[in-house]
Amino acid sequence: MTSRTVVLFSFGPGQFSVLRNTCEAAGYTPVAYVYCRSKKPHSPTSAEVGEGLGQVLGDIPPGMDLLVPGSSEGLLAGLSGYRPDLFVVYGFSWRLPPEVLRLPRLGVLNIHASALPRYRGPAPVLAALRNGDRTIGVTVHRMTERFDAGPVLAQRDDISLGEDVSAAQLWKSLNPVVGELLATALELGDGEPQDESKASYAGYLEPEFSVVDWSQPARVIHDQVRTWRFIGAGLGPVATVGGRRVKVLRTRLEPGEGIEVNCGDGPLWIVESAPDSPS
Description:
Layout: E1 4-10, H1 13-25, E2 28-35, H2 49-59, E3 65-67, H3 72-80, E4 86-90, H4 98-101, E5 108-112, H5 124-130, E6 135-142, E7 152-160, H6 167-185, H7 218-231, E8 238-241, E9 244-252, E10 259-263, E11 266-275
Parallel strand pairs: 1-2, 1-4, 2-3, 4-5
Antiparallel strand pairs: 5-6, 6-7, 8-9, 9-11, 10-11
Helix pairs in contact: 1-6, 5-7
């Protein structure tokens, strides 16, 4: 039987590996890998792209092309010649235009880090953290022109979100789940429509989320700090503590070490902070 061809899209080398291995095991031949270089088309290249590309180049097989487009027009032009059977997308930051979605014969599968229709949009993990969710979901669905709204092929909603989870830890722990769900999805057809009555949106963080409001409940502020720590080491919302402006890097809800501060519904303890440097 002639192998079907697939083009893979992702935001990092770890995601590329799980997509490639799963698709090859299902009888698909990856012919190209599209690596996301920026948050949006025509925008500056992200700082971490160079390191990621180095890892990808060490893992990509001979004969498989690597595409790093700077625009949607370039993406369409670069992909048109492959005549692919399928696209598989995991974390690609750009919204694929309709012309790109129509290229593969078997459509486009997208892997989204939530139990859709909850947390559609670009930042589902940040939404789960700020809302204090104890678990996170993963969904494989058919991509349509509506953002994260296509039929669901495979889904889980039981992956633990640790109290001190980092981005590197989470993506690594999700890889086996993604592989399992994608393998299932590749064997299925049209999928099940999403329940629109349960849909919610997870957009990027608003500017106000970078400042602590001590009138909020302690749990809300604690999860605000956790969210920023997930984004990156040394990041935290700014707060006034004892007359000084600091970045709050780590907090605890139970009595213990740290500086006790009063919140809207009770105390919270600041375990780690740093001076706020003026921008």
